[in-house]
Write a structure and sequence with these properties.
homodimer, alpha/beta, Aldehyde Dehydrogenase, Chain A, domain 1, Aldehyde Dehydrogenase, Chain A, domain 2, 7-stranded parallel beta sheet, 4-stranded parallel beta sheet, globular
Chain lengths: 415, 415
């Protein structure tokens, strides 16, 4: 058995205990974890300081260093996040539906944990705790494989988590950290079908594509967002400009940020200058088609590749369309199925658009930035699913469960 | 573009029409299909006769020839199955949940089709129509790849289906048949992530394992069943014998048939001879551990491999256990997560067992043979999922849909 297989088997066994632990025990564990993260923060900070020093020496750039760094405030926020997960209702054991069949069999479909969840992520130590807390609350064991730059931080966090679990009588192996951060260990994990029920990659597009490409364990695809704002001819144009500015500029690095605006030709000459008044505050670089450049001559010409780019930055693709048919077709070709918005005053057009656009979240007259577990009222999320199977959109606790049928008989046999 | 990519693109476009076609149009299409299958049955039968002649000449064995064969009665039953699908409620458009957020955003989570579904199956021409009908009703286009021995039959059926779709104004490409039945086309299909949203293999364990192993398209794993009947010390033993006989012998080739009986040592000497009284009627071959062979000396000794075998035949593995702990551990190691049953008069033990056994369906005092869409009241099924993501157990129409969020705003932007 490899080291990872041993962790897999241990997690499987731990999960059988956790699956029937009950809400009270799990919440006690989470609150104990939150307290322990605070009580042992010096230990966590010093491990993080070692990671940061090594990363700095290795030439990691400033924005990445910022993602890797912990401080007192961040640790307090992470611990508070764990307490919030403890306060959420437990989906495990919920009855989804019941039926009594003509032969007297009683059926009950009940929520159960998914099992053992693998999480592959990059150098963000907060993910270690956030993901583990959500998995635990939904009764799942987890095997975490973070980026090698954060290994010392993750090791310290997982030690704290495992000690806290043990202190409340739950198996330490409900949470495990992959020790080997090589590419080989990631590949082994992607093929650990015997022990992993699900694999969730969290990180950039490259990581997610690699996991989807190589995994045999069922994957939940998250966080790829080429989102559009479509400004219809009957839009309230100042509202459209505000929504576009918010969707592009409020946090351009996240997956629910807009990457492309589509505007009806009928209102392009009026809308685009209005939008630019706001976008220019952030020096947003525009990549525009010819019709849009005729209105905004300072925009760069867009190439075909711009329609599929997730800039993650103050950059925006701009295209003039003939109407909602073209907008919907364009989104079908270039969207990633994350979040799409129409701005229009025409309820019929809105309905038509919403019926036809195939995405996790389709908005009328609101910013795509709302696609988020907290904003949807689901609480913390493990990611935003852009696939169609199992869960779509923000994945909260319920989406970290599956179901099983319980059937109560009195000796029934099938004819 | 390859032939399959062309079919994929055409299916994607057809699906966009089908997704918003509405229940009435889809039901009309299904009823037209049922009528057309009857009206053109000579055409279908003669294609099937050609398949049968070739298969016979190729030395196909009798049980396989029987699966391949159509006749008037079978066609009538298939057409009737399509009418039953038409009569089921349409899951598409159903509102799963709604919420109004403090900022005034109105959320609606709505059922939508999954998209384009690939089905890879063996030489059973009835699957062609059954699967297409279920996909159509749930608003999904489908690309069908049946076994090469049934190609002429499948071609004839798909022609009838496509003509019927066209006659009611729906795109022919809602249903497509893969022309190339080579292994290469199967591999290409498993990697057609651009056009296929889901892949469902239907057939034997070898087919399913190959798809799970090779596919990059998300797969729904169905129909692997190593099911157990656990006879607890407090079982009504005659009831347990009836349940075991039914679970093993009523249709041994199907996935919800039992493959192994576990019996508490306390009642083994009484139960096993009682069970044998019935099992011997079908000359069931027993593969038993030493403790069971001490009671049934004519049983073969079981090897380790017997605990993992899906016999699909009149064969049964037999093991004596010390109690429910051992039974649950054994099922965790050797079950496939399909259907598991306990026979007991003790409700506490039943609850304990049902909480701990991780399977699509867990029974108390009933035969595992009930795991089936019709028996569960879901109507026709596309398969029985043994995975945890998305759907578990019989997959009816609802399980052939996903969801999306529709969000209605009035200009909201995120802080």
């Amino acid at each position: 058995m490899t080291a990872l297989e041993k962790q897999g088997l241990a997690a499987k066994n731990a999960e059988r205990v956790l699956a029937v632990a009950g809400q009270e025990r799990k919440d006690t564990a989470l609150l104990t974890i939150a307290d322990a993260l605070m009580a042992r923060r010096e230990e966590w900070l010093s491990a993080n300081a070692a990671d940061l020093a090594a990363a700095r020496a290795g030439g990691m750039k400033e924005s990445m260093l910022d993602r890797l760094a912990l401080d007192e405030g961040r640790i307090a926020a992470i611990a508070e996040g764990v307490r919030q997960v403890a306060a959420l209702p437990d989906p495990v054991g919920q009855v989804v539906k019941t039926a009594t069949r003509p032969n007297g069999l009683k059926l009950e479909q009940r929520r159960v944990p998914l099992g053992v969840i693998g999480i592959i992520y990059e150098a963000r130590p907060n993910v270690t705790v956030d993901a583990a807390a959500l998995c635990l609350k939904a009764g799942n064991a987890c095997i975490l494989r973070g980026g090698k730059e954060a290994f010392r931080s993750n090791r310290a966090a997982v030690d704290i988590l495992r000690d806290a679990l043990e202190s409340v009588g739950l198996p330490r192996d409900c949470v495990a950290l992959v020790e080997d951060t090589s590419r080989e260990s990631a590949n082994e994990m992607m093929n650990l079908t015997r022990y992993l029920d699900v694999l969730i990659p969290r990180g950039g597009a490259g990581l997610i594509r690699s996991v989807v490409q190589n995994a045999r364990v069922p994957v939940i695809r998250t966080g790829e967002g080429v989102c559009h704002i479509y400004v219809h001819a009957k839009a309230d144009l100042p509202m459209a400009a505000r929504i576009l500015y918010n969707a592009k500029c409020s946090r351009p690095s996240v997956c629910n940020a807009a990457e492309c605006v589509l505007v009806d030709e009928e209102v392009a000459a009026e809308f685009l200058p209005l939008a630019w008044e706001q976008l220019k505050e952030k020096n947003v670089a525009l990549h525009a088609d010819a019709a849009a450049r005729a209105i905004l001559p300072w925009a760069d010409p867009a190439g075909e590749e711009d329609w599929d780019r997730e800039y993650g930055d103050y950059q925006l693709a701009v295209k003039v369309v003939t109407g909602s048919e073209e907008a919907v077709d364009f989104i079908a070709r270039h969207g990633t199925g994350h979040s799409e918005a129409i701005v229009t005053g025409d309820a019929d057009v809105a309905r038509w658009f919403m019926d036809r656009v195939d995405a996790a979240a389709v908005y009328v007259n609101a910013s795509t930035r709302f696609t988020d577990g907290f904003e949807f009222g689901l609480g913390a999320e493990i990611g935003i699913s852009t696939q169609k199977l199992h869960a779509r959109g923000p994945m909260g606790l319920e989406e970290l469960t599956g179901t099983k049928y319980l059937i109560y008989g009195a000796g029934q046999v099938r004819e």
